[in-house]
């Protein structure tokens, strides 16, 4: 029989903090599990410390945390093989410290007002009262000759301490669950909790379930069924007896499933990077984010000074539906899960990264806004950004092909990061690459271009080309094209629709960059601000002088007093009758005039950007503006033929000539416009009808 050693009152200022905690943390009751298991982990760590220091002699045994669900007694207990406590320690740490720190926690929580506190850490042992009507501690200290202790409390301010007959070192915390908290007797609930909060705790966490006894009588079972049950049940004997006769009495022992480890335990981020293989990292990623595509790249964070941060960050493939403003990096503190986002900790541009950050230097018992303003947290954010930049540079240097292959996704981070963080921009500006129309000479390079750093472009052989797509840095582009168009960057945002323009440029040996990701148009503007002397122009903004026959003098027709260009302009102006359209004529340089386009629609760079910005502000798709330029290529045979047909119309030799000339004008314009925008339903209908009419008329002539 146990004798009560002491009954007492817990000295706290708030009469009963339990209802307050219950109210404040209503949705977070489950954190009691994290708190109790953290205490168990600490206790086990302490026992190995005292063993190492020689204070405790002999074998300390295997560390283990055992969770027992007792469905009969409706209790949940957590047993550790840790350091244990003496009666004095229970009084000091539990009745004084634990309760007063809970009180302190409530005060802080109140002070935070409506703001959410990030981790609800620090509530500690007291959090068990959120789910339990009674909490018992059964503990035996490691100290020689220690007497085992039993402490019990019902959440009020009074407690009882008595001797216990426990003989094994360590502590068992037993919670008698409140009526409305019976969910914690379900093993799936406990498994989920352990997986969420304690999966990576450094010791095995096992689960055992004590089921109610089987009913006294049971219908005899078929042999196979009974066999299967035997294998399942811990108490094989109980099943055996149930099998032999229908009159079997209630088994003496309750059926307990053998304890089974339920946490993963290996926190990969705590391991030394040199001991890990790519497969280890990938396997860990797949464990954290099941059914997701493998990541592109990862960074192992590992520092002890001036703050402690461990972690692994992965670059995922950026699916279009990824919300880049949401973080899914999991935050841990000493391997204990805190939160499934790190929004306040890692820089905004790195939010789409995935993985784990573990730091004991991130204050957790604070509101989110406090966290954002915290100096250490800011430093940690900078550290993370720096490590990410370093890792990208390393890959650019060591495995250019992999870097290029991942660029479509990596590029978004890098560009977004450069725009958001000046330090990061400086770090990555040399590894910011763009796809180019340049065809890199992979074998025996004939031309070698030296970049500012003394890098020889062709020296890298095919390293900047992957699957026939070649990449370049901005500096390399500018250096290569200095002679032809200093500080001017020609770019294309849609390889398909802008193909005519790109081909024209390529045909004249002008290098075009492909800025075709969603972030690129902002990025080009950003780069112009950064490099004041550099100007970006989309291939369809205007035609570079080198593409136009500038000094081709034209003959003036004495009867009309007009040049050929004037005539063409008049024909189109009359046929299209679009007052907002500017019609311009040029002779486009080309070795074969028929291969250059007969007409092109141009939209000046500034005008287009303004349009895009307005559309973005109104969160709309940019409409193609009515004010634009139709450039007609007077060297093209089609334009020349059109002039002839039109001449017939004017001279009145053919009745349909005027109609045909008008239709051809519309057609040429439509074909040029196609590079800028698709047809709407009416436009499509008109285009098809007109195509048929033109073809009919042309074939009728034959
Ligand atoms: N399983 C255990 N074994 C040994 N000592 C324990 C155990 N659980 C709690 N303690 C003692 O009780 C103290 C108070 O625990 P409590 O969980 O309230 O706070 P804490 O663990 O110190 O801090 P935190 O606020 O981070 O939880 C612990 O510091 C420890 O000394």
TrEMBL record:
Entries under SUPFAM superfamilies matching the protein: ATPase domain of HSP90 chaperone/DNA topoisomerase II/histidine kinase (SSF55874), HSP90 C-terminal domain (SSF110942), Ribosomal protein S5 domain 2-like (SSF54211)
Plastid keyword on record: no
Superkingdom of origin: Bacteria
Compositional bias segments (type: Basic and acidic residues): 220-233
GO molecular function terms listed in the Swiss-Prot or TrEMBL record: ATP binding; ATP hydrolysis activity; ATP-dependent protein folding chaperone; unfolded protein binding
Compositional bias of kind Low complexity: 236-252
Binding site residues for ATP: 35, 39, 80, 85, 171, 368
InterPro entries xref list: HATPase_C_sf (IPR036890), HATPase_dom (IPR003594), Heat_shock_protein_90_CS (IPR019805), HSP90_C (IPR037196), Hsp90_fam (IPR001404), Hsp90_N (IPR020575), Ribosomal_Su5_D2-typ_SF (IPR020568)
Residue span of region Disordered: 212-269
Keywords assigned: ATP-binding, Chaperone, Cytoplasm, Nucleotide-binding
SMART domains: HATPase_c
Residue stretches making up the Histidine kinase/HSP90-like ATPase domain: 28-181
Family under the similarity heading: Belongs to the heat shock protein 90 family.
Record protein name field: Molecular chaperone HtpG
Source organism of this protein record: Romeriopsis navalis LEGE 11480
Gene that encodes it: htpG
């Amino acid at each position: 029989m146990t004798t009560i050693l002491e009954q007492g009152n817990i000295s706290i200022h708030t009469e009963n903090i339990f209802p307050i905690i219950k109210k404040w943390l209503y949705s977070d009751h489950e954190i009691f599990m994290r708190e109790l298991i953290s205490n168990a982990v600490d206790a086990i760590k302490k026992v190995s410390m005292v063993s190492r220091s020689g204070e405790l002699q002999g074998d300390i045994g295997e560390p283990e945390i055992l969770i027992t669900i007792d469905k009969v007694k409706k209790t949940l207990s957590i047993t550790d093989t840790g350091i244990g406590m003496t009666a004095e320690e229970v009084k000091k740490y539990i009745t004084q410290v634990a309760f007063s720190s809970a009180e302190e926690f409530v005060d802080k929580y109140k002070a935070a007002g409506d703001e959410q506190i990030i981790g609800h850490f620090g509530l500690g042992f007291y959090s068990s009262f959120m789910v339990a009507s009674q909490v018992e501690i059964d503990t035996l200290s490691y100290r020689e000759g220690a007497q085992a202790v039993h402490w019990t409390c019902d959440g009020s301010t009074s407690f009882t301490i008595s001797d216990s007959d426990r003989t094994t070192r360590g502590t068992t915390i037993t919670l008698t669950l409140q009526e409305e908290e019976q969910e914690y007797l379900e093993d799936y609930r406990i498994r989920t909790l352990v997986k969420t909060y304690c999966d990576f705790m450094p010791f095995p966490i096992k689960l055992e379930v004590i089921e109610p006894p089987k009913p006294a009588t049971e219908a005899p079972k078929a042999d196979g069924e009974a066999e299967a049950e035997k294998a399942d049940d811990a108490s094989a004997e109980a099943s055996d007896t149930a099998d032999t006769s229908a009159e079997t009495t209630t088994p003496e022992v309750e059926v307990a499933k053998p304890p089974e480890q339920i946490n993963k335990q290996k926190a990969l981020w705590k391991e030394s990077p040199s001991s890990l293989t790519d497969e280890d990292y990938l396997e860990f990623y797949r464990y954290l984010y099941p059914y997701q595509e493998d990541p592109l790249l990862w960074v192992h964070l590992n520092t002890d000074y001036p703050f402690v941060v461990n972690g692994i960050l992965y670059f995922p493939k950026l699916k279009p539906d990824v919300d880049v403003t949401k973080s899914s990096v999991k935050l841990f503190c000493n391997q204990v899960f805190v939160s499934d986002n790190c929004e306040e900790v890692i820089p905004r541009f790195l939010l789409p990264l995935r993985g784990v950050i573990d730091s004991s230097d991130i204050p957790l018992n604070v509101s989110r806004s406090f966290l954002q303003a915290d100096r250490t947290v800011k430093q940690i954010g900078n550290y993370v950004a720096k490590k990410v930049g370093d890792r990208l540079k390393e890959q650019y240097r060591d495995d250019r092909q992999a870097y290029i292959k991942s660029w479509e996704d990596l590029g978004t981070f890098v560009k977004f990061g450069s725009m958001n963080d000046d330090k990061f921009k400086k770090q990555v500006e040399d590894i910011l690459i763009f796809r180019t129309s340049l065809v890199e000479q992979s074998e025996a390079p004939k031309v070698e271009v030296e970049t500012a750093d003394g890098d020889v472009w062709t020296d890298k052989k095919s390293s900047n080309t992957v699957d026939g797509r070649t990449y370049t840095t901005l500096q390399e582009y500018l250096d290569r094209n200095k002679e032809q168009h200093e500080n001017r960057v020609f770019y294309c945002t849609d390889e398909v629709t802008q193909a005519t323009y790109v081909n024209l440029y390529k045909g004249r040996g002008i290098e075009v960059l492909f800025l075709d990701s969603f972030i690129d148009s902002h990025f080009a503007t950003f780069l112009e601000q950064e490099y004041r002397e550099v100007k970006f122009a989309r291939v369809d903004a205007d035609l570079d002088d080198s593409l136009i026959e500038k000094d081709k003098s034209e003959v003036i027709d004495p009867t009309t007093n007009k040049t050929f260009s004037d005539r063409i302009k008049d024909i189109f102006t009359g046929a299209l009758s679009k007052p907002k359209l500017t019609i311009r004529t040029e002779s486009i340089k080309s070795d074969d005039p028929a291969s250059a386009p007969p007409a092109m629609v141009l939209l000046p760079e500034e005008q287009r950007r303004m349009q895009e910005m307005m559309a973005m502000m109104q969160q709309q798709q940019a409409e193609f503006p009515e004010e634009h330029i139709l450039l007609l290529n007077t060297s093209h045979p089609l334009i020349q033929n059109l002039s002839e047909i039109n001449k017939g119309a004017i001279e009145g030799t053919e009745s349909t000539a005027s109609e045909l000339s008008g239709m051809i004008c519309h057609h040429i314009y439509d074909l040029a416009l196609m590079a800028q925008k698709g047809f709407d339903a009416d436009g499509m209908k008109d285009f098809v009808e007109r195509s048929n009419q033109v073809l009919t008329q042309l074939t009728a002539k034959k």
